[in-house]
Each structure stands twice: as C-alpha cells, then as structure tokens.
Write a structure and sequence with these properties.
Layout (H helix, E strand, L loop, with lengths): L24 E2 L4 E5 L3 E11 L2 E10 L20 E4 L5 E3 L14 E10 L2 E9 L6 E6 L7 E6 H9 L25
Antiparallel strand pairs: 1-3, 2-3, 3-4, 4-8, 5-6, 5-9, 7-8, 9-10
Length: 187
C-alpha cells in the first residue's frame, strides 16, 4: 500500500511499445537467416529505442509455390516464428506461447504490422527490454524445415539506444493512444 492506503497498480516493464516521442537509431547487421528450397528469410533493419528495439522479417517463397491466404496477403500462421535469444540465456519466440520463454530477463515481443503480396511477406517486430551486452540471436524456425539465424551485438543495440533523440519531453508528448496504422500499396 502507498501512503494513501491504496494498492499500487502492477508495474509495467516500461517497454511494451516503441516510444512515440523518440527518434530511433539504426544498428548495423542483419542478413539472410534462411535459404531453403521453398522459403528464404531475411532479418534486419534493426532500430534501437531507449526501451527496446524493432526489426524486420522478410519471407519470400520460391517461384511456383502456391500463394497463401487471400490474394496479396500471407496469413500470420504462414510467417515463420523467430526465437530471440539474449546473451544471458533469456529467450522468447514470436507467435509463441508463454512456454516459449526462458531465462532471467522477461523479454516481450509482438508484431507491429506487416504487408505482402503473393509469395512475399514482410513484418516488423518490437522487442523489449534492451538486451545485455553480448550476442542477440534471431533464429528463424520454419515449420518442418531447417533453422537459420542472424546475430546482432547487444552492446551495439544499447549504444544506439543511448544515441536516440527525444525532441520533446515524454510527459509533454501525447501520441493519441496505442493504435498502429499500417498501409501498403499494391503493384
């Protein structure tokens, strides 16, 4: 209880969303995580924020593979899951369940949005909190296929996060809620 006799609200981790008042800093790295007979996956475009980072997963199916879902969209369950592992052994999996988490750090991950067409799907994921120093491994786990991974430097992510610009104080910033707007144009 606090001094007024009220039970405090549960503490938030503080990084469940990219802060709307921060300008991110890009982190070098990324590349092809998986190149199979019918699926290739690239992971990259990692951007650091003061409370976490986001990255892009781009899945491309081989020519001649049937398009999935309605035209122009690949459903979530066709997106290969990614396991994010920090140097301290903590891990979490996109599209996973609580049983897919491990280690001393409670890592949060969620999809921020995506778009695609035919045999292409690209999605951006948010991860929090910032990792400890050491490798951050993003491993792609396609159903029934081999795994592949890409590594980033936890120290580089933390250094980039420290360089983020905050043009306005957080308490003065109103992002209008927690909605996410995503758009894509067809071609």
């Amino acid at each position: 209880m606090d001094v007024h006799g009220k039970v405090p609200a549960p503490a938030r981790r503080g990084g469940e969303d990219p802060p709307g008042h921060a300008l991110p800093v890009g982190v070098p790295g990324g590349g092809v995580a998986l190149r199979g007979a019918t699926l290739a996956v690239w992971v990259g475009s990692l951007r650091a924020f003061p409370n976490g980072f986001d990255f892009v997963l781009r899945s491309v199916r081989a020519p001649g593979q049937p398009a999935v879902g309605r035209p122009g969209w690949m459903p979530r369950d066709d997106t290969p899951p990614v396991r994010i592992t920090y140097a301290d052994g903590s891990a979490v999996r996109t599209l996973g369940s609580p049983e897919d988490t491990a280690g001393p750090t409670r890592i949060g991950v969620r999809e921020l949005g995506g778009s695609g067409r035919g045999t292409l799907w690209e999605a951006r994921y948010w991860v929090d909190p910032l990792p400890p120093d050491g490798p951050v491994t993003l491993t792609v786990h396609p159903p029934g296929g081999p795994c592949g991974s890409v590594e980033f430097s936890g120290a580089a992510i933390r250094e980039a996060a420290a360089q983020c610009e905050l043009p306005w104080p957080e308490e003065d910033f109103d992002d209008g809620g927690h909605g996410v707007l995503s758009s894509a144009s067809g071609g």
